[in-house]
Amino acid sequence: MAILRMKEIRNMSREEREKKLAELRSELARLRTMVKAGGAVEKPARIREIRRTIARILTVNNEEDKGAK
Fold first, then answer.
1. Domain architecture of the chain: domains with CATH
2. pTM, two decimal places
3. CA 69 to CA 63: how far, in whole Å?
4. What is the pLDDT of residue 19?
5. Distance from the Cα of residue 29 to its chain's centroid
6. CA distances from residue 34 to 9, 37, 47, 49 in whole angstroms, order as listed
């Protein structure tokens, strides 16, 4: 899964962002579990990418919430 850019995230609907957020969180949990278990992660930088993408999605969601008020 590629990194999502802000432009792509802003073009998504709220439901699409929520679905993508759930997918990313589950993948992050899986990768963190692998690291804790002592397994080697194929791409360690992937954890960082996922965390940043989650933050981007949450930022767009919060911007929409603030703009609606």
1. 6-68 (1.10.287.310)
2. 0.89
3. 10
4. 97
5. 11
6. 28, 5, 11, 16
DSSP codes of every residue in 18-62? HHHHHHHHHHHHHHHHHHHTTPPPS-THHHHHHHHHHHHHHHHHH
At residue 1, the pLDDT reads 60
Both tokens of 56, joined, read 């981007």
CA distance 31 to 5: 22
- Region at 38 (left for phi over 0; alpha for psi -120 to 50; beta for the rest): left
Question: In the chain, what's the furthest Cα-to-Cα distance?
Answer: 46
Residue spans of the chain under pLDDT 70? 1-2, 68-69
